[in-house]
Amino acid sequence: MNGNQAQDAAGTADTPVSSDTADYLHVFDSRTCNIHHIPVSDGFVRGSDLSTIAAPVKGNSGRMQKLAVLDPGFQHIACKESGITFIDGEKGELRYRGVRIEDLFHDHDFDSTLHLLLWGRLPTKEEKIAFERRIFEAATPPQEVCDVIRKLPKNMDFISMFLTGLSTYMGTDEEMTRSSVMTYHKNMKATDDAIIRCFAYVSATLATVYCHVKGVELHPPKEGLTLVENFLHMIGMEDPDKKVSRTIDRLSINMADHELSCSTAAFLHVASSLTDPMTCLLTAISAASGPLHGGALEVCYQGLELIGSVENVPAYIAAVKAKKFRLFGYGHRVYKTQDPRAALTKELMEEHREAIAANPLLQIAVEIDRQANTDPYFVERKLKLNADFYGCFVYSALGIPRDMIPGLLTISRMGGLMAHWREAMNNPIKIWRPMQKFKL
């Protein structure tokens, strides 16, 4: 095919673009000598537009193969549009529904942030009270849930107990067990009711597991408390000045949503089949338990214990640079500057300085941070401190057992998970079914 034929087949690069779209990507396909004009909107091209590019299959000129994209780990592909969370990884900005994370952290509590994520605006005083009351009304665990959890060995893995309890809780909810019925899609009342129950089920189950492991009494929920305050009340943790609950609140705001994290994507992948939200949540918790995701907090702590002393930090940094170890808590898929949540976590560390300073691993963490901030290896790669690095110190300073931290992180992430689910239930649904490239 000559150049003129190519122009006849697909137009020229000088063809005026549509007034509807300001930008086009002009692609010359050397396989067919065709020129393709792919619309670009806000820096994105649509996969369906790319798939209009096709060429004969090698060895079978009568059959055309559409162009597809191979992107292991979904590093360059957006699978949905969302109005919930905005991240600018170059500037280190994070916003929920247009509100800066710093403003939410300093001026609002976790329950208000949940309302913002779910319904797009901060609540009035009356709306916040009503929201908290609805969670309270659903937060008393059924006897079946308590019985199942109490039969589990106390030395069993905490997350395994948590998942077992949640599965049992789900089994007592007749609506959620009707997974073959399309209950929630385009039914926002049923969706919102289920969201409230999910918040209650998660906090009540976590409290029940904690009390079982510690051998302490589980207290019934109390009206008039926030989500975090009620959780602390149920496990019998004294918090007269609200210092513990306010700290967990702010840690939870920090972790409430982060676009399509691994666990959020896993949640939505399952949700695309239109099953119930608790089934999706069990998937998300399982995904978050891995050491490259929510489990990174615990892995950070284990890494510090392995180093043992400040004197061993240079050798550890050298081993990381030689790719013998991974430096957990540093670097992020999205951020190329400091994670804004890390700076906020440092503020909480300052508030609890005395309790945190008593932790012998803190000096090791500080020295790692100092060296990584000045070492060209980390500086040139724009590897900065992320939200995981110091988070474990704050939780420990509050008296939270390390094995319970992933469970608390589930409560923290519930707002984002439920907001994304609500958004999905209010939009047209396509089941998520990624492609693969076959390779011998």
TrEMBL record:
Q: Which residues form the signal peptide?
A: none
Provide the alphabetized UniProt keywords. Answer: Transferase
Please list the GO biological process terms of this entry: carbohydrate metabolic process; tricarboxylic acid cycle
Q: SUPFAM superfamilies of this UniProt entry?
A: Citrate synthase
The GO terms describing molecular function are: acyltransferase activity, acyl groups converted into alkyl on transfer
Q: Which PROSITE patterns match?
A: CITRATE_SYNTHASE
- Which residues does UniProt mark as catalytic? H332, D388
The Gene Ontology CC terms held by the record are: mitochondrial matrix
User: Which PANTHER family does the UniProt record give?
Assistant: CITRATE SYNTHASE, CITRATE SYNTHASE, PEROXISOMAL
Q: Which family does it belong to?
A: Belongs to the citrate synthase family.
- What name appears for this protein in its UniProt entry? Citrate synthase
Task: Record the organism.
Answer: Decorospora gaudefroyi
